[in-house]
Amino acid sequence: MKVDREMEILLNEIPLLHHGGLLGGSEAAGADDDADLSFLIHELAAMGVVDGDDEPPSAPGDANGGFGFGFSGMIYPKKGGENLVALHPFSMASHCAHMPSLFDLVTFDAAAAAADGWDIRCSPPPSVSVPPPPATPRPRCKIVRRKNGGCGAVTTTSPKKCGAAAAANKSHGESLAGLRGVMSHIARDQHGCRLLQQGLDHGKREVDHIFAGVSRHAAQLMVDPFGNYLMQKLLAVCDAGQRMALVLTLTADAFVLVRISLNVHGTRAVQKLIESLRTREEISLVIDALRPGFLELIKDPNGNHVVQKCLQSFEADDNKAIFDAAALHCLDIGMQCHGCCVLQRCIARSRGEHRDKLVAAIACNGFKLAQDAYGNYVVQYVIDLKIPNANSSLAQQFEGKYIHLSMQKFSSNVVEKCLKVFKEVDKAKIILEILATPHLEQLLQHPYANYVIYSALQNSKGSLHSALTNAIRPHVELLRTSPYCKRIYSRALLKK
């Protein structure tokens, strides 16, 4: 039974050996007929199927005699060579070892195939489109038409959403009420402060809860990096009674509001407080609280903005205390970088007797202010107002000192302003003082005084202008070479 099975397998493999020239047959049409099957006949004879020789055919002795390449124990002839047999006899054992069945699984080595030059590229598998899931129908909402002055805008609101929003607002209000004891601590946290600010948008009930939780700690929160934002927003939405309560809390101690105004965060909160004040009583309380520290506030880079916000938001009568303090300390304020700006703002916002008092105080200190790096701007501002009493007071202080003032960096700007704004009589006094100097060439070459002479040429007329031109013309050669005289030499009258 076993012999029959092996014979059947052997007979079935014979056509496969012929197919494709596995036995090394010629590619010509008659190559199969010339194939040497002696080794197969020998095997069949050994099984008793056919008669054959006792010895299997031996392989040729010459290894190079027409052999090609070896594969799985078989040797294939070169193209066009003689049909040769395998070096080893054909048996079932060698067949199973070297010729596996065509239906056995074969492991494909891609790396080795690529190294042998095989083309292993193939087209990608076709993409299978998956149909999208069916869309879930959305619940229908109730349509509400807004009536804003006949506007036809239409919005859709869901009853479920409306109910959920109402429940959320209710629960939010209840949660804020439960946080009253720790709300001031929450306001000092970045995320907690944002949460409370959002609560202020939910209505009057939430505003009341938050106000009750933070009002006693308003002074501490206004200088906090995060809490000051909550206080600013609270001041914008609280009612009149709550605002008055905050004002009373912040002004109970005379220096509390001043310290807050000097802080980099507190100054913004105090400015928001000033913007929100409505009654005369509230304004009076805030001004009285700021008055003791006015001089310190006006010089401070943060506090000066609080004073300027008062000048901008309140009426002139409400700012009377600020005007009086500015007039009293005008020299000290005017010679400071922030103070000179506040002093000019005070002049601009004051009216009537308050303004006259303030301008007169500045004019009395005009000579000192004119020589200061910041005070000279205040003096120029007063000169531009063209107030007769103030300009006359300044002219009297400057008379006989114009040369001294012209040779200084800051006061030379004041003298130029005097030549542009003063009356003709006062202008003539300045030009005559320049002409009377024994060393005019020094003024022409001076880095600051040369600008004063140039302004004198521009703002003089008639015989006075001719006298000034004649005094300068002998120094034309000097004007050509000096770097500070080019503007004077460029005047058309001097070139003639």
UniProtKB/TrEMBL annotation:
Keywords: Repeat, Translation regulation. GO terms for molecular function: mRNA binding. Gene3D superfamilies: Leucine-rich Repeat Variant (1.25.10.10). GO terms for biological process: regulation of translation. Pumilio repeats lie at residues 213-249, 289-324, 361-396, 397-433. Residues 157-496 form the PUM-HD domain. Coiled coil: none annotated. The keyword Lipoprotein does not apply. One of its GO terms (cellular component) is cytoplasm. PROSITE patterns: PUM (PS50302), PUM_HD (PS50303). It holds the Pfam family PUF. CDD domains: Pumilio (cd07920). InterPro entries: ARM-like, ARM-type_fold, PUM-HD, Pumilio_RNA-bd, Pumilio_RNA-bd_rpt. Sequence-specific RNA-binding protein that regulates translation and mRNA stability by binding the 3'-UTR of target mRNAs. This is PUM-HD domain-containing protein.
